[in-house]
Amino acid sequence: xxxxxxxxxxxxxxxxxxxxxxxxxxxxxxxxxxxxxxxxxxxxxxxxxxxxxxxxxxxxxxxxxxxxxxxxxxxxxxxxxxxxxxxxxxxxxxxxxxxxxxxxxxxxxxxxxxxxxxxxxxxxxxxxxxxxxxxxxxxxxxxxxxxxxxxxxxxxxxxxxxxxxxxxxxxxxxxxxxxxxxxxxxxxxxxxxxxxxxxxxxxxxxxxxxxxxxxxxxxxxxxxxxxxxxxxxxxxxxxxxxxxxxxxxxxxxxxxxxxxxxxxxxxxxxxxxxxxxxxxxxxxxxxxxxxxxxxxxxxxxxxxxxxxxxxxxxxxxxxxxxxxxxxxxxxxxxxxxxxxxxxxxxxxxxxxxxxxxxxxxxxxxxxx
Length: 368
Prior knowledge:
By secondary structure, the chain is mainly alpha-helical. The chain has 13 helices and no strands. It has a domain at 19-106 and 151-182.
């Protein structure tokens, strides 16, 4: 079989695989979640295996501990979070009244400085923005509900995910060997090299950013609670957990907490302290957590990560969000490999030999 026919065969296989994922996107969540848990915990099981512990026993011990810790955290946090949500729902009228009073004060100041025409335009822009924001929020909630948190998917996530995680984690070496045996023999070494590079990127992002998000969630939640901000625990945990999307967690948390502080406090001191929590969180993340726990191994641009997450969520809901970064990492590896092949071919150099007098070659990527 020629190389071109091999490429066409594998491209057709990838297209078919993508169509299957799209067709069954409504039931993918527990399987994707189980695979993600198995991938996350495999190094721990490998270490226990190196200590001559049976793979099935090691898998059982690791998964039991994982779900005990995860379930224990939920048991401890859910009552507190539930109380804050109930209190928030009860205080919504009061918060709206306070926000309306603040807005009226701001508009009164602006009306003294702006012309009537400018004030009308400002009100129209504000009304249009608010309407668009509500529509966007409604669409997002609808997508979340239909994409991953409907009752059936929630129950399947609870009961099916542990089973899927157990079998995938237990049989991980067998799965890897089987997939390796399917590789075309002429290109097996190259494919293994690319897979290892993608695996390093994915593991660096998933495991590293997972720890970073947990640390930020604890930091933001505790700091805002100690300050005394209403619903600070909910805002802080949410901001930390969505920090895997570059800048989004900090921006959403900052706006939500500062907005709540503007309603709650009449002086600027506590408001500045609340804002300082997120400034400190960004300094902590950018200068300590991300360099130490994630590093530069992932080589994924923040814009590419944001695009991948939005595209994954649009295509397959919450399951698509879980698949987005791994798929983006694989695409990144394939693009770099294709580019390296291109710059070493006659398509790039033409009739000029590489390293000629007037050619500096392609731009270098000096990142580690």
